[in-house]
Amino acid sequence: MEPTSAAPGILDEVRGFLEDLRRDWPEIFRARPRLPEPPPAAPPRIGALPARPAPPPPAGTDAALFHARAEHWAPRLGVTFGRVRVKDQRSLWGSCSREGNLNFSWRLTLAPSEVLDYVVVHELAHRLEMNHSRRFWAHVEKHCPDYRAHRKWLRRNGEALYRASRAAALLLVFAFAAAAASAQGWTAVGSVTNVETLSDGVELTAGAARVRITAFAPGVMRVRLAPNGGFSKDASWAVAEEAAPPAMKIDDGVDAVKLTMGEVSVVATKSPLTIRFADASGNAVLADAPALPMAWNGASVRVWKSMPPGERYYGLGDKAGPMDRRGRAFSLWNTDAYGWQESTDPLYKSIPFFLGVRGGKAYGVFFDNAYRSSFDFGKETDGILSFGADGGDLDYYFLAGPAPKTVVSEFAALVGRAPLPPLWSLGYQQCRYSYYPEARVREVAKTFRDKKIPADAIYLDIDYQEGNRPFTVSASSFPAFGAMVRDLRAEGFHTIAITDLHIARAPGVGYAPYDSGTQLDAFVKNPDGTVYVGHVWPGDSVFPDFTLTRVRDWWGGLYKEFVGLGVAGFWNDMNEPAVFNETKTMPLDTVHRLDDGSAVDHRAVHNVFGMENARATYDGLRRLRPDERPFVLTRAAFAGAQRWAASWTGDNSATWNHMAMSTPMLLSLGLSGYGLVGDDIGGFIGAPPADLLTRWMELGAFNPIFRGHAAKGTPDREPWVDGPEHEALRRRAIERRYALLPYLYTAVEEMTRTGVPLMRPVFLDYPDSEDSYGDRDFLFGGDLFVAPAFSEMREAEDVRLPPGGWYEYGTSNRHEGGVPLSVRPALGEIPLFARAGAIIPQQPVAQDADETPNGPLELHVYPGPDCRGELYQDDGHTFAYRRGKFLRARYSCEAAADGVSVSGAVEHGGYRPWWSGAELVVYGFAAAPREVRVGGTAAAGWTFDADRGSVRVLVPRARGAWRVRILR
Ligand code: GLC
Question: Which residue has the higher pLDDT, 472 or 14?
């Protein structure tokens, strides 16, 4: 059993599984069906092998028994073993001498009780081939000298062989998984007995169960299961889009029903009922695993799907660890995960949405179920992904894409996109647990201004309150709260106050939120009708029943006084909901009321509780300040929470690894519809070394939300704390963010319309190069590529630029994409590249986002193909943009041998920006140009920067249409 040493873990797992099977389902091991004659030898299906094929298994041997067992179980499990492809596989492995190492898999093939061993070893060999594991191949070659030839053959034919052998292997795995599933009490949907055509799809009856497959929107299909035939009320906490089903063609055949909607089709086989989504050419994109139709077990529901080799899985919100979820399993149950680590699961948010991406094409799945759910991407059974929940409906959407960006947009349309945030919220935000008393808050704000480090927001964490009671202010620490907020505003700071969702249980002391909430009967109850009390920051606390509109309205009104005092933003924390007890939340049997007069227990709404809290806050602020864009920050979320709040990744730690982990988490959130997100820069827990904090600020400047935070009792964390050198570097990082605000705001505005996140993985824009990028580098908008330094950078690191040409930001050094570039950025530098063909709008640095920049708009032109840029601007804080008061300008350039021409035009001029002129900075000039023409006239006053290879020229009237020519 030599090669087993390559993966003892897997084989041990398999053995354990087999033993469980033996115990739970002894029949399969006892059953000795009558042995049929071995099937006649047939030529290998895949191709001629260089070595001899092994003889067919003689009757009465284990091999024959294996055939028999397959024959026996195939019809029962509803799978086809394809005459048991043992022959092909034997051919494959038989090419090596019988004593050779590989024959052991042959031996295992023939032992029916160890079929899974065989499958795993077989898979393992292939996987190792894929991974080029030297150790494995050295071993093979030692024991099996003629394997070299075989390997060459494998290389040539490997892909086809792999697919075929894998298909065979997976069938076996499915068979066992199905057997195990049924042994554990799962009931699978049976065979279709009736097909009813609906206006938007079909309803299939299968025994007592019914399944509806409907069109929801172009490219979006929906599947619902009612195990006992009665569909529950069609309601969703997440889905924001109205169904608009496009025309659909329905073919009801003998074996299957096929629904075709434009380029997408779905085939439901009738016996048993399995579902397969296919693309325009009929290729399966996402299919139920054979022999594993959707099933239920008590209140639980689950779906199993095949995982094609090489498919990657992204999404599920802020899960830690690699962005590609393949090979791992996750739980979705909003959890206060203080001090989470890479392996911690679940975390704060539940976004039951993922993308499958393979060969540049993608699809999405949204499982619309707010109960505790779980997603398994081949962890339990290689080759099978599954998702399901502890309760609620089996109700999922298939999003056809096939461009990854389309899937992301489809999902954002389905659950709702973020509204345009106030511009100031994209500036630097300074937080800590907690700035107090008042003098300290003022001191921090003043230091930013004195040191000329731009910043826009300062946070008040729970210590500004009286006894940590939400909606109170500590009179001793903040004797002049209103004046402080006003003064901060005058200095360009927005105050953001925390208002956790728990209300202190403080009867009879004049604590208004408790009194008014009690009067309104606003709090979550125990099953016996008493109000549920849990311990959180203020001590005994009660929890608003956020699933009731009247309670959300009441909650929103609690902000009145703070809004009146000028507090600009609000922070809804601890809203998983967190309770300081063993389960970290309220008991599962607490009662939550719904608007229709019914009630559900905590299981049904736990995952949406925080989202409904943020919704109540946002809606309340809209009512209190109808023309001001609210800024709400929430920790917990469900799919669609971006409609009401920005978010962050919770209580991380001050380590290099946490900084590295922040990128895949934020990228995953972006893919999951959540684009306005950040993490605690510097790490919440612990004390970041100076270099780490500097690097983290450099990186954070390219996160959608840029917010420094620190836990109570940790050392100070403001940009200046590590001395003048670090301060200068951090100032520079923050200044760069401010210089890029016009670009950033334009990309955020685009996100609010399309759902395409500002911070995005490279494959979203370059789907064909999906496998070339890890979890470190990302795109910031479509035109900037960021390759942050995650370690202390003692060694140079490779950066692979996306396809096309890329300039080192702010210079004329151009590199071609796809070729690894070795970088070793000094502290204070972050490898940043601009797309050749980008026109990036920038502005002179201001101290806050509302301050009028001192100088014209800047347009940084990096000549290249597809040369374009865009600028969106408005007043930055009201909803006037919805009434047309915004500016949208488009820019383009053309590079030729004799020079570069750049043009601009204002497409929509409903807002008058601070600038009237634009300064062009055009890169890519090795020498000073011969002439520069603005419009028809030769321009004076242009400059050439030899170091940067750039030409600077002012377009005095840039609010109309203009053209500049720079001649070499
Ligand atoms: C939670 C939050 C953290 C906050 C603290 C005190 O731990 O995640 O950001 O500072 O509570 O409110």
Answer: 472
User: Phi/psi of residue 160, each to 5°?
Assistant: -65, -40
Does ligand 1 have an atom closer than 6 angstroms to the CB of 573?
yes
Cβ neighbors of 508 (< 8 A, separation 6 or more) are: none
Q: Could you report the per-residue pLDDT of 678-727, keeping only the tens digit for each?
A: 999 999 999 999 999 999 999 999 999 999 999 999 999 999 999 999 99
Q: For residues 204 and 212, give the distance between their C-alpha atoms in angstroms, rounded to a whole number.
A: 6
pLDDT tens profile 618-675:
999 999 999 999 999 999 999 999 999 999 999 999 999 999 999 999 999 999 999 9
Return d(Cα 908, Cα 895) in angstroms, integer.
26
Residue appearing with tokens 């939340």: 585
The most distant pair of C-alpha atoms in the chain lies apart, rounded to whole Å, by: 97
CB–CB of 373/646 below 8 Å?
no
Residues in the chain, total: 968
* Amino acid (1-letter code) at residue 853: P
Residues 909-965 have pLDDT tens digits of 999 999 999 999 999 999 999 999 999 899 989 999 999 999 999 999 999 999 999
Query: What is the spatial distance between Cα 530 and Cα 515, in angstroms, rounded to a whole number?
Result: 16
Atom of ligand 1 nearest to the CA of 433: 10
CB atoms within 10 A of CB 651: 19
Q: Which residues are catalytic?
A: 573, 576, 651
Token pair 């076996």: residue = 172
Q: Is 237 in contact with 611 (CB distance < 8 Å)? A: yes
| Whether the predicted pLDDT of 111 surpasses 80 | no
Q: Report the relative pairing of strands 457-460 and 428-430 from DSSP bridges.
A: parallel
The alpha-helical segments, DSSP class H, found in 78-146 are: 86-94, 103-109, 115-131, 134-143
For ligand 1, whether the C-beta of 461 sits within 6 Å is yes
Identify which of 349, 573, 709 to mutate to test ligand 1's pocket (most ligand atoms within 8 A of the CB): 573
Query: Does position 110 have pLDDT exceeding 70, yes or no?
Result: no
Q: What is the mean pLDDT of residues 847-859?
A: 97
Compute the radius of gyration of the chain from its Cα atoms: 31
State whether the beta carbon of 463 lies less than 6 angstroms from ligand 1.
no
Q: Please give the helix or strand (H or E) that residue 175 lies within, else none.
A: helix 147-183
Q: Long-range contacts: 473-477, Cβ < 8 Å, 24+?
A: 474/436, 474/437, 476/437, 477/436, 477/437, 477/438
The closest of 900, 892, 891 to 924, measured between CA atoms, is: 900
Percent of the chain with pLDDT over 90: 77
Residues 6+ apart with CB under 8 A from 790: 656, 659, 660, 695, 776
pLDDT average, residue stretch 543-559:
98
619 lines ligand 1 (CB under 6 A): no
Q: Is the pLDDT of residue 164 over 70?
A: no
Among 57, 85, 241, CA closest to 165:
85
The sign one gets for the Cα dihedral 642, 646, 651, 653 is positive
- 3-class DSSP assignment, residue 778: strand
Q: Which atom of ligand 1 is nearest to the CA of 461?
A: 12
384 band by pLDDT with thresholds 50, 70 and 90: very high
